[in-house]
Amino acid sequence: MLDGTTEVRQRRAYTVTPDLLGELGYTPDMVEDAEYAALVLASIAGLAEFGERVVVVAEVDASLVEPGDDSPNGECLLTHCPPAAMTAWFADAPEVRVPKVPQKATIDEAWDLPQVQALLQEHDLLWNDVAEYRRRQ
């Protein structure tokens, strides 16, 4: 449950990596565009692994981030993320019909699916401030 109390440890995460910049042709001054790309890629990873697009955004010290296996897609390993570091989360609106993605699909495989492309083109993720889940406590 996303309630802002759970500490995250040893979790696959997505961020702007040098490989992501190179893969997508972004220059270092295009950080905002690259951050959005990492958000979208994280949402596809969530869809492939968990069947939903929920992305938690956090501001953590670089020492808590280790390289991941899929750096061109922004993957990293978040070794620790205290709840206070979480700044926002993004999710689909409740009425959005999220397509099924084959279990164990990679981001690249899921990206190529027509139903995933349709989802990305038709439905932006909704931004939620962490104050929203902290008020529920």
Any key phrases for this structure?
137 residues; alpha+beta; 3-stranded antiparallel beta sheet; 23% strand
Provide a concise account of the structure shown:
With 137 residues, the protein is of the alpha+beta class. The protein is built from 5 helices and 6 strands, in the order E-H-H-E-E-E-E-H-H-E-H.
Number of helices: 5
Mean pLDDT across the residues is 91
As a whole number of angstroms, the C-alpha radius of gyration is 15 Å
How much strand?
15-25%
Low-confidence segments, given as residue ranges, are none
**SSE run:** EHHEEEEHHEH
Backbone structural class? alpha+beta
Overall 3D shape:
globular
Query: The biggest beta sheet, please?
Result: 3 strands, antiparallel
Count of separate structural domains: 1
